[in-house]
Amino acid sequence: MQDNEGAILAQKQTLQDRIIRRRWLVALSTFPLLGIAVAFGIAPATDPHPVELKTVIENIALPQATVLNEGNNAFWRETRIQRGDTIASLLNRLQVEDDAALSFIKNAKDAKTLYQLAPGRNVRAQTSASGELIALRYIASDSTQLTVDREGDHFKASEQAAPLDTHIVMKSGVIRSSLFGATDAAGVPDAIATQLAEVFSSDIDFHLDIRKGDRFSVVYETLYNNGDPVKTGRVLAAEFVNQGKAYRAVYFKDREGREGYYTPQGKNLRKAFLRSPLEFSRITSGFSLARFHPVLKTWRAHKGVDYGAPIGTHVRATSDGVVAFVGKQNGYGNLIVLQHAGNFSTAYGHLSRFANSLHKGTRIKQGDVIGYVGMTGMATGPHLHYEFRVAGVQRNPLTLPMPQAFPIAAQYKNDFVAFAQPLTAQLEMLRDLNLASVD
């Protein structure tokens, strides 16, 4: 029993010794850390007295500022033309206070471009601090740039072609009511909409064939000057889905200068004859073997197609040809007859007038303006009477199959493929976006 108590007391003593040794180790290990902390807190040989601060003021010679004279203080300003603007109101908004400049611009023969004040276009002017005009720049709708510059006490005006940058624009849309309504909604300029209709005019009759839900995609040029759009350029590629059938066109110009629109496979979209001699119109009377004549008040054949349009509307040649007749002829009134390759001819009646310098033997290209809509001869209203003749016999141009023009020449096929591929890819992208928006 005593032995057990001794063993227990020995174990307690050993445990106490271990605890005491651990406390000393902890204490000893702490002192270096405290020493380091003190070393960072008080650096050796530190002067405890505060440092005396002094303020020193020194004169530094500055360069003399150059004051520009009034003539060198020039300011460029820009304003956008608004409806009802005059030259005086424009100069006033540009803060031009210069009667001599106003008088010069109003009377200078070389400054007439400024009278084409197209709303939305910009006019820029440089003036002195007192409002004297130093320079003026304006670009008209035909991309002619007017430049007016002060030379001493006088002004000099000149007109030249404006430097333009070409930007590529891609747009797409869906037909809800009309082509122009859809292009307006998509932000496509009217000039591009007209080109779009012309490109596909051999395959699509835009008077009769358009349906709600038809889709279009178009890649075209817009020309800029100093970041401002000046005018639209050419349609480079387009797709039109009409009644579920897709038509595609790519512009191409070969090394010999021949240009046109082709399918992505190189097939010429241009047929030997256009479907219609007018860009946009409505058919007021179709081809018929029995029609009640509004003037003669009797039933008779109407072997042509009448297109209603305002007087003065451009009439286009539907194919390359030679003028066989131009003048007045019975109920046709003012009439033009064109002779085409083979045994084809076309006739254009009731014209108000003919194109300048048109006479028998004149060579005409497809799309050339040859006359203007009128109501001469036996006509009750302004319209064009159009006939398509084969060996002198009238045929219905709306149902007769039209022959194709020549495809891409073999030696330029590789050039065409390289040019057409990126444009076709852009049409694919637009088509996918268009379908996504419709869905």
Give the secondary structure arrangement, pairings included.
Blueprint (H helix, E strand, L loop, with lengths): L1 H40 L32 E7 L6 H7 L5 H9 L14 E7 L4 E7 L4 E8 L2 E8 L3 E10 L4 H8 L3 H10 L15 E11 L2 E15 L2 E9 L5 E4 L19 E4 L2 E5 L6 E4 L2 E4 L5 E3 L4 E9 L3 E7 L4 E11 L8 E2 L4 E5 L9 E8 L2 E3 L17 H26 L1
Antiparallel strand pairs: 1-2, 2-3, 3-4, 4-5, 6-7, 7-8, 8-9, 9-10, 11-14, 12-13, 14-21, 15-20, 16-17, 16-19, 17-18, 18-20, 18-21, 21-22
Describe the structure.
This protein has three domains: 73-161, Nuclear Transport Factor 2, Chain: A, CATH 3.10.450; 164-271 and 404-439, Roll (Nuclear Transport Factor 2, Chain: A); 282-395, Glucose Permease (Domain IIA) (Distorted Sandwich). The chain is globular and about 110 Å long. The termini are far apart. The longest helix is centred in the N-terminal third of the chain and has 40 residues, at 2-41. The chain has 439 residues and is α+β, with helices and mostly antiparallel strands. The chain has helices at 2-41, 87-93, 99-107, 179-186, 190-199, 413-438, and strands at residues 74-80, 122-128, 133-139, 144-151, 154-161, 165-174, 215-225, 228-242, 245-253, 259-262, 282-285, 288-292, 299-302, 305-308, 314-316, 321-329, 333-339, 344-354, 363-364, 369-373, 383-390, 393-395. Strands 11, 14, 15, 16, 17, 18, 19, 20, 21 and 22 form a ten-stranded antiparallel β-sheet that branches. A five-stranded antiparallel β-sheet has the order 1-2-3-4-5, with helices on one face. Strands 6-7-8-9-10 form a five-stranded antiparallel β-sheet, with helices on both faces. A hairpin with a 5-residue loop joins strand 9 (245-253) and strand 10 (259-262). The chain is built from six helices and 22 strands. It is 23% helix and 34% strand.
